[in-house]
Write a structure and sequence with these properties.
heterodimer, A: 117 residues, mainly beta, seven-stranded mixed β-sheet, 47% strand, B: mainly beta, six-stranded mixed β-sheet, five-stranded antiparallel β-sheet, 11 strands
């Protein structure tokens, strides 16, 4: 597709439920990032994939958070036993990997807004 | 370690007035610097970026930013604000490699008054 697609756009979950958020990056983009954006805050890094390899998961806040990208394209962020503090917008971003440059631009999706009641 | 500080969580200007959004960064390596804009219920859109070379960077919608290494700053400006500029603006810094995370500031909400 032309951009990064995320679904669902809005998700309401009861505390304790599991949720799955999907990211469909731009075709051919090797790098994929997940960010969490709490209300009124800047995005915070969660995890990074290069193709199917999860190279950095240091930002995941707890072992209830799990991300995968099994075929190196679509990625899923799963949150188990959701808590109210998990309420946030979850942003996915992707970029080409040309060389090893951090100058590569990240293209963001519109995000998935999770509300935990 | 990298960090970004945006001075002023809310900035209000009149239509036609100068826009100045402040950003200071800290980075242990030469950084790449970005400004993103976020409209309500939308993702982040890149305004401009500094990588190497010319320190005055021009972006979309008439915005520009100047990288000042001595001041560790990357302030965003626009000579004349338009109503459509009302949005949240994020400054971000990134390290050298393609696996480096973007580290964002907390954002500045820009209001443009008629």
């Amino acid at each position: 597709g032309a951009g990064v697609s995320q679904s669902p756009r809005y998700k309401v979950a009861k505390r304790g439920q599991d949720v799955a958020l999907r990211c469909d990056p731009i075709s051919g983009h090797v790098s994929l990032f997940w960010y969490q954006q709490a209300l009124g805050q800047g995005p915070e890094f969660l995890t990074y994939f290069q193709n199917e390899a999860q190279l950095d998961k240091s930002g995941l806040p707890s072992d209830r958070f799990f991300a995968e990208r099994p075929e190196g394209s679509v990625s899923t962020l799963k949150i188990q036993r959701t808590q109210q503090e998990d309420s946030a917008v979850y942003l996915c971003a992707s970029s080409l990997r040309t060389g090893t440059s951090g100058a590569n631009v990240l293209t963001f999706g519109a995000g998935s807004r999770l509300t935990v009641l | 370690a990298q960090s970004v500080t945006q001075l002023g969580s809310h900035v209000s200007v009149s239509e036609g007035a100068l826009v100045l959004l402040r950003c200071n960064y800290s980075s242990s390596v030469p950084p790449y610097l970005f400004w993103y804009v976020q409209y309500p219920n939308q993702g982040l859109q890149l305004l401009l970026k500094y990588t190497t070379g010319a320190t005055l960077v021009k972006g979309i919608n008439g915005f520009e930013a100047e990288f000042k290494k001595s001041e560790t700053s990357f302030h965003l400006t626009k000579p004349s604000a338009h109503m459509s500029d009302a949005a949240e603006y994020f400054c971000a810094v990134r390290g050298e490699t393609s696996g480096s995370r973007l580290t964002f500031g907390e954002g500045t909400q820009l209001t443009v008054n008629p």
